[in-house]
Design a protein that fits this description.
heterodimer, A: 77 residues, Non-ribosomal Peptide Synthetase Peptidyl Carrier Protein, Chain A, 4 helices, 60% helix, B: 666 residues, alpha/beta, three-stranded mixed beta sheet, 13 helices, elongated
Chain lengths: 77, 666
């Protein structure tokens, strides 16, 4: 697993207050991890802070699962 | 009305005919009639006091819509004047002390009576925002939402209040009369009791239970309906309004274009233009224009609202302490409260925010418009500042309000500023932006949440809030500048002309929202001074002054935009060149397109898999998708999505056109 993926999962676990072991690349934020609408905004903010990047909001809010989030963030690094 | 008509004494033969038709009079010499009266149309009627009767010719339309012959049957009339073509039948007790206009139809009523010195709802002291008093608004028919707002909310200016109360009292005294009015074309049926009520032209009063001490404003082009089971005491109702289905109205004002029904109860409350209230309850509220509450178990109390939508089960409390209620709530324009939301006053919510959950803490988020405000499990307020800036709801609301103005056919009393983005709201966004930015820079990363004005914000969301507000501020300012340039180029003026400020424009950094009318704070100060000095001393003068302020909105707004632009972008628009204007247009295109695309993303959530949960009942997986398509349609075919996509195309075309026009200027 890449360093980015590890950090993404850490952020997801902290933000959604779930066990990191429950998170895998295919996990969908809403259906599988129980994220509420507002938490998607919080996730974007947390990713930006963790990776010190400014994400394109249009694209970021369209990301539905962990694997896609990792790929999306890596594009911004 | 009937006052200008000629009436003559009854002849002996007419009296004899009336007697033969079952009519009686206390004194026949007190009964006078129109020359063309068809006496055969007056049957089984008793006359007391001075009576004048019009010609009773032809037909009228009844409350139920049937064409019925004019005449008087089975009635007791006491000191009444009737116009021409009137139908009055089946009056259980009597009609006393009324001037009844032409074409009126009154059927099956118990009692209609005016008592000496009646005020017809005028002077009713409505205890707005605090049912214990302190902010009373005295009703009169020409009251606008702006007048009521000043009288109710600006108690910190005692001289102003004294003068406004004098203006209101003058109107109250003018309304005082021993004779009530039922104006031309009014239709009344099936009402047990109407006491001290003036009813204006073409109103329909059908099946109401009781109307006591009130005025029903109405015109032929904007008729008002008071329907089944309505009980109204101490009230004034505006034109083009419907109050129906068992609504209860007590000590309240229901303005123009309102709809109240389905057993809604309003007490001590003011409702202004285009409000809608069903099922629930209002107590001591100031419902500014477009306040809407549609559902049961909804209690709005001691609050100030406008452009507000109360979700089902919305509840608020203002605390009845030993010395009486003290707390007030302010939901500024455009707010929504979600299902079963509860707010323990005092709280103040910034414009266009959404409130969810049970809030038991005090907060003031007036500097944070478009926020998502949610209660934590312990009642603390958690806020996501600016989140609703790019949501579908905000855009749709902004578009729908102007199209839903039901006040056609009457003089509009409430002035309404419809703009979602305005100096008032964007000014707050600038404040919010600055406060969030400062907090963001000061707060250590180890901190999870920070507190702002009683509400909590997750630290990581501060940056998002700054971004949302920055984007909204930029888009508004750029749009205003570009629109100004476009206007000037269309008129053949140059860029310098485009940036000029009208000589009578007023700049204030702070804007205020006075009962739905936004204005620079200095305009309000000028109004204060004119009223307090006695320069404005009657209702005509104050309404004219408010009209003048309203008509200056665009130029005042431009004066504000120029200053804000300078502050935000550090650019003096007076010095702008064509190539800089092109750069502004390009930035608008980029920012506005991004904004519209975020709205599209928000709209797309309504078509995602989660939204489709529950569709395709009893079917397979594929049936879920098909069922959803059949019911909700597809993303691409959705009307709103098409509009947003069209807006992006239009923006591109608009900016391209402007580039070409500016190329000529360069």
């Amino acid at each position: 697993m890449s360093d980015t993926a590890e950090r993404v999962k850490k952020v997801v676990a902290e933000t959604l207050k779930i066990d990191a072991s429950m998170i895998n690349d295919g996990s969908k934020f809403v259906e599988d991890l129980g994220a509420e609408s507002i938490q998607s905004v919080e996730l974007v903010a947390a990713f930006e802070e963790e990776f010190d990047i400014e994400m394109d909001e249009q694209g970021a809010l369209g990301v539905k699962d962990v694997g896609t989030a990792v790929a999306f963030i890596e594009k911004h690094l | 009305m009937s006052s200008g008509k000629q009436y003559t004494a009854l002849s002996d033969s007419q009296i004899e005919q009336l007697k033969s038709q079952g009519c009686r009079a206390e004194d026949w010499s007190c009964v006078s009639v129109a020359k063309r009266l068809d006496v055969s149309r007056v049957i089984n009627t008793r006359f007391e006091g001075t009576i004048r009767i019009g010609d009773l010719s032809g037909t009228v339309t009844s409350a139920s819509g049937l064409i019925r012959p004019c005449g008087i049957e089975d009635a007791t009339l006491i000191s009444c004047t009737l116009g021409d073509s009137v139908r009055v039948v089946n009056i259980g007790s009597h009609i006393a002390n009324y001037d009844i206009g032409d074409g009126v139809c009154i059927e099956d009523v118990g009692i209609i009576q005016t008592n000496p010195g009646a005020l017809f709802g005028h002077g009713t002291e409505v205890e707005v925002l605090n049912e214990g008093g302190g902010r009373e608004v005295s009703l009169f028919t020409r009251m606008s939402s702006q007048f009521a707002h000043l009288l109710c909310m600006h108690r910190y200016r005692p001289k102003l209040i004294e003068q406004l109360e004098a203006i209101a009292d003058d109107q109250v005294q003018r309304a005082k009369s021993d004779i009530g009015k039922i104006a031309a074309g009014v239709r009344i049926a099936g009402v047990p009791r109407i006491i001290d009520v003036n009813i204006n032209e073409s109103a329909i009063i059908w099946g109401a239970s009781a109307l006591v001490n009130g005025t029903v404003l109405s015109t032929a082009d904007a008729p008002t309906l008071i329907g089944d089971g309505v009980q109204a005491h101490d009230f004034i109702v505006g034109e083009a309004t419907n109050i129906t289905q068992g609504a209860i109205v007590a000590k309240s004002y229901i303005g123009q274009g309102c709809q109240v029904g389905k057993q809604f109860s309003a007490e001590g409350s003011l409702f202004f233009a285009n409000c809608e209230a069903f099922h629930g309850e209002a107590c001591s509220i100031f419902a500014g224009p477009y306040t809407v509450t549609h559902h049961k178990s909804t209690l709005l109390i001691a609050g100030l609202y406008s452009f507000y939508n109360a979700g089902s089960g919305t509840n608020q409390s203002n605390h009845m302490y030993k010395l009486g209620p003290v707390h007030e709530g302010k939901l500024e324009r455009g707010c929504k409260t979600g299902s079963f939301s509860y707010m323990m006053w005092p709280c103040r919510v910034g414009p266009f925010s959404v409130v969810l959950g049970k809030h038991t803490r005090t907060f003031d988020l007036s500097d944070f418009p478009f926020s998502h405000i949610e209660a934590a499990h312990d009642g603390r307020c958690m806020v996501v500042p600016g989140l609703n800036l790019s949501t579908v709801g905000t855009v749709r609301d902004g578009a729908k309000w102007p199209t839903r103005d039901r006040r056609e056919g009457c003089v509009l009393r409430d002035r309404i500023s419809f703009d979602v983005f305005s100096p008032m709201v964007v000014g707050r966004m600038i404040n919010g932006h600055d406060r969030l930015k400062e907090l963001m820079e000061k707060t250590e990363k180890s901190v999870d949440t920070v507190t702002i004005s009683g509400a909590q914000v997750k630290r990581v969301l501060l940056r998002g809030g700054v971004k949302y507000y920055r984007s909204g501020i930029h888009t508004y300012l750029l749009e205003k500048v570009i629109a100004r340039i476009e206007g000037a180029l269309d008129r053949g003026d140059g860029l310098a002309g485009a940036m000029a400020v009208a000589p009578d424009a007023v700049y204030s950094e702070r804007w205020v929202d006075i009962g739905g009318q936004m204005m620079p704070a200095d305009r309000l100060t000028g109004l204060y001074q004119a009223v307090e000095s006695g320069q404005i001393a009657d209702v005509d003068a104050i309404e004219s002054a408010l009209d003048a302020i309203h008509s200056n909105y665009s130029e005042d707004e431009w004066a504000w935009v120029r200053q804000a632009y300078k502050k935000v972008f550090e650019v003096d628009l007076d010095q702008i060149k064509a190539d800089e204007a092109v750069a502004i247009a390009d930035k608008l295109l980029a920012d506005q397109s991004k904004f519209l695309k975020l709205i599209l993303i928000d709209a797309s959530k309504e078509f995602d898999d989660v939204t489709q949960v529950g569709f395709g009942q009893d079917g397979e997986e594929a049936d879920r998708v098909e069922d959803f398509r059949a019911v909700r349609g597809t993303y691409d075919n959705n009307k709103f999505i098409k509009q947003m996509n069209q807006a992006i195309d239009d923006l591109n075309n608009r900016i391209e056109k402007l580039r070409q026009a500016l190329a000529v200027c360069a």
